[in-house]
Amino acid sequence: MSLREIRPIAHEAAREQVPHAHAEGQLFTVKSGVVSIEAGGGRWLMPTGCIGWVPPYASHGAHIHGAMAGMSLYFDEAWSRAAMPETLKVVRLSPLLAALLDTLAQAEPPCGPVLAHYLAVFADDFIRQPAQTLFLPMPQEPRLLRMATALLASPDDNTGLDGWAARIGMARRTLTRHFQADTGWSLAQWRQQLRMQAAMERLVAGESVTAVALGLGYASVSSFIALFRRYTGTTPRAYLALGKD
């Protein structure tokens, strides 16, 4: 049977899931709250209304930021490799994906040929959806990784390039060149992505839009809201309301 298990997820507080792997492919949805996934040398953020795919035997860990609700579905290895992406992917829930998930999670879900048809449609639509942009690649060079890890812990740290070069013992030009080579991004782009992830986590934790914007160093609340809309397609307040529907 291709669909092995459906497991609801509900947590009232933040928690950490250590890196692990399993033979089954895993789909997981976030109905409310925010989850960050660490896998494949990077960090994905899964806000409300997203669904993520982890292929068989892919090592992955998770951090749940405050209260969270969702669902995990586990699929056998053969179906996972034949029908779904080979690497981790996070997408927004399309209306079709959401409807199919609701059908699969019913007390009496479809089975046999009907289930196979539903899963084929699900896999096709999932593959067609664009990957979410809330991905943060991590550098592999030890000194750069130490810097990136420190910024993950303190995203509001405003230390500039010269300051970081001195702190990790690397020339400024070498830092920028190696960081771009390791991640594909400039440090400025990477920090902007990091701060957007941190903003979502803090909003879900209950901080006000103003406190998040100013606490993360945005020039103004309006500039933060504009950037948030560019990333998510909605305002911070509307985004938070999604998890309360």
From TrEMBL:
Keywords noted in UniProt: Activator, DNA-binding, Repressor, Transcription, Transcription regulation
HTH araC/xylS-type domain span: 142-242
Name of a matching Pfam family: HTH_18
A GO molecular function held by the record: DNA-binding transcription factor activity
Domain of life of the source: Bacteria
Signal sequence segment: none
Family annotation (PANTHER family): HTH-TYPE TRANSCRIPTIONAL REGULATOR NIMR (PTHR11019)
Protein name: Transcriptional regulator, AraC family
Annotated source species: Cupriavidus basilensis
